Amino acid sequence: AAVTVLPVVVAIVSYYYFPPEARMNYGTLIPPRPLPGAPLPRQDEGAVALSELRGRWVMLTADASICNDRCRRKLYVMRQVRAAQGVEGMGRIERIWLLTGEGYPSPELLAGYPGMRIASAAPDLICSLPGDPDPADHIFLIDPLGNLMLRFPADPDPGRMIEDLKRLLKVSRIG
């Protein structure tokens, strides 16, 4: 009896009293919550609403139109992480750059990031992004249902982001 009961007791004790310290995910999980759905104006064509992107995973960043080195790094990481998912995965992921100030990014800059949606940020949307101290420091992930769910650090590790997205795309039946 001790041989069969001992493993069960050890498993219960270790589960409740010695929880694992490590997490599988790299990004910080955010309690899922919907983002404001108002259309965001675009200078190049009409408007884009986050509700239009339901059914796809969305990487979102917010930054000024005058893109500094930190901003360029985030755009580069978003492009590379999406491309690393392969042809099938790329079709399931969208990228959005919310402009937090006046103006529009230079055409030379945008040429390096084809397919990225660019829109002017609504103040209520920026306020709903969790940041410590500034949401512009992070890349956010929105699930296919339109809920903000994950925040990546200020200077993200692309390899670990790729693994997070790979896991999510693998288990997701939607998007």
Describe this structure in words.
This protein has 175 residues and is an alpha/beta fold. It has helices at 2-17, 69-83, 86-90, 107-111, 123-128, 158-171; strands at residues 28-34, 40-41, 47-48, 57-63, 93-99, 117-120, 139-142, 147-152. It has a six-stranded mixed sheet, covered by helices on one side. Strands 2-3 form a two-stranded antiparallel ribbon. Helix 2 (69-83) packs across helix 6 (158-171). The longest helix is centred in the N-terminal third of the chain and has 16 residues, at 2-17. The protein is elongated.
Keywords:
single chain; 175 residues; alpha/beta; six-stranded mixed beta sheet; two-stranded antiparallel ribbon; 6 helices
Provide a quick synopsis of the model.
The chain has helices at about 1-15, 70-85, 85-90, 105-110, 125-130, 160-170, and strands at about 30-35, 40, 45-50, 55-65, 95-100, 115-120, 140, 145-150. With about 180 residues, it is an alpha/beta fold.
Shape: elongated
The whole-number mean of residue pLDDT values reads 88
Largest sheet: 6 strands, mixed
Q: How many E-type strands?
A: 8
Instruction: List the total number of helices.
Output: 6
In terms of quaternary structure, what is this? single chain
The termini sit apart by: 49 Å
The structure class reads: alpha/beta
Would you identify the regions where 5 or more consecutive residues have pLDDT less than 50? none
Strand portion = 15-25%
Question: Strands across the major sheet, in which order?
Answer: 1-8-7-4-5-6
**SSE pattern:** HEEEEHHEHEHEEH
Percent in helix: 25-40%
Q: What gyration radius follows from the Cα positions, in whole Å? A: 19 Å
